[in-house]
Amino acid sequence: NGAIGMTFEQGGISAGLGVKTEDGSILTLVDRAQHHYTTGISTIEVSSANASKLVTEFKKYFDDTRNAVGSDYKTYVLTSEDANKLQAVADLLTANGIEFGTTASTAFKGYNYFTGNTESFVSEGYQLAVSAYQPKGKMVKVLFEPKSYLSDSATYDITAWSIPYAYGIKSYAVKEKLDVGSYKTPPGVSDVASSYGLLIPYKSLNAVKVLAELLQQNVQVRYNEQPFSYAGKSYSAGTLIVLKGNNVADWSSITNAACKKYNVQPVDIESGFVEKGADFGSPSIRFIHKPRVAMLAGSQSYSESAGEMWSFFDQTLHYPITQFVTDNVRSINLENTDVLIIPNGYYSLLDDKSFTQKLQDFVKRGGKLIALENAASQIADDDFGFKVKNKDDDDTGKAKKDDYADLKTYAGRERDYLPSTIPGAIFKVDIDSTHPLAFGYPGYYYTLKQDGVIYQFLKNGWNVGVMKKSAYISGFVGSKLKPQLSDGLLFGAQDYGQGQVVVLADDVIFRLFWENGKMMLSNAVFLVGQ
């Protein structure tokens, strides 16, 4: 954005009025406030002394970005069959003052993010285009660059965040300047009437929001496990089905209102018989029970992980979620819970045999346990059917050890650690789109991986998301760790008694900007095990 980035900070943020430092002195709250004041005034003084140069460089920065100086790609074109996915990107761009629209041109080639090849553009229905020739052109480059380029791999935060992967939208990076006109807003949703039922396409998070609202208003909703065709149109697995029979009296008006609210066009049906696939009275049509959802929170949950989970239910889905505080194990009563989510954290209570037994009993009698990241690793030690894959699990032959390989210098200790780290990189995951956990997805998913944990393939469960060889897409991955991240499970579901355990090895809603994973978490809550 043309600014000079710098950070001033001082230790003692949680020290209250004072803290004793290593040299024996006392650093007070007043000291810290004065130090920040001094650095702030110093910054203003230096800026004032160099005002002319700062203004000149600031103007040059935007002059260059308006002409796409330094941008290898001049236009980015996103396409999707679901307008709501593009609208989510449009909202992000609008919030950041980035210009966008649509392009009338279709006869162009570009780098296809999903295949990694330069290909001719193929529209999926709707389109959004972003030109690098604009005042925010540098930020456009940062948000859309297919591969992250790092001047130094010693970083403490994620190293890949490209919008096409984060939002799961087919996109092309084009090296030529395309004319980008005004953004064409898709047509609105219209009410439909039926004496039998309505179908709700399940293609984006908006459909999940519709489902969450219908369940809270006690509307009975079903979904199909297999694709089907009705009235000459094909519907994917996971399509939501709302039928008049045995439903609330105002089922149709509630459904139409929810669909209009979240911009999902319902389709009217007049029969339970389909042209191809399972009829609506078959066992392949599953009833969605209204789940009572709870999560663990408190000192043993990582605050950012528990916070994003709570926010997702409260602010995005608008669906109630109960929080169980981990500090008091005895207060956690699962009798009135159907789904228990364990966000990322380190849970000493998972080392408590009585609590582990409580979890196992909860699942065996029909409950659903959803564990993410480190929480998933912890329950893998508790006989739930999941096992972490160790790096030596499938070594058929080990290279001869270099006797001097472990000799390291003290000064290089931080960089010696880098080959085994992964601060945040993007990998392609092969998805079993026939499983309810993956409904709404194609045969792949792009995950933001922040650790080296993968799981052994399940012998009696469902290997929904697996990493195969050459899964790496973008971001920094240590040279020692990278070869280990293959041939393992990332997302899976395991029957356990009458219930299910769902493991999500990665944070699928990372900081609530990893848009493409929100539907998978929702599937785990609402669809798996129904």
Helix percentage: 25-40%
Question: Shape from CA axes?
Answer: globular
- Main sheet characteristics: 10 strands, mixed
Give the N-to-C terminal Cα separation: 48 Å
Give a count of the beta strands, DSSP E runs of length 2 or more.
24
Q: Low-confidence stretches at least 5 residues in length (pLDDT < 50)? A: none
CA-based gyration radius = 26 Å
* Tally of individual helices: 12
Average pLDDT score? 91
Structural class of the secondary structure composition? alpha+beta
Explained architecture:
This protein has 530 residues and is an alpha+beta fold. It has twelve helices and 24 strands. The strands form five sheets. Strands 15, 16, 17, 18, 19, 20, 21, 22, 23 and 24 form a ten-stranded mixed sheet that branches. A five-stranded antiparallel sheet has the order 5-4-7-3-6. The longest helix is centred in the N-terminal third of the chain and has 21 residues, at 29-49. The model has no long low-confidence stretch (mean pLDDT 91).
Spell out the blueprint of helices and strands:
Blueprint (H helix, E strand, L loop, with lengths): L17 E3 L5 E3 H21 L1 H16 L8 E6 L2 H13 L13 E4 L4 E4 L5 E6 L5 H8 L18 H5 L2 E5 L22 E4 L4 H12 L4 E4 L3 E3 L2 E3 L4 E4 L7 H11 L5 E3 L15 E4 L4 E5 L5 H15 L4 E4 L13 E4 L10 H12 L3 E5 L1 H6 L33 H5 L7 E7 L12 E6 L12 E6 L4 E3 L13 E9 L2 E6 L13 H9 L4
Parallel strand pairs: 15-16, 15-17, 17-18, 18-24
Antiparallel strand pairs: 1-2, 3-6, 3-7, 4-5, 4-7, 8-12, 8-13, 9-12, 9-14, 10-11, 19-20, 19-21, 19-22, 21-23, 23-24
Helix pairs in contact: 6-7
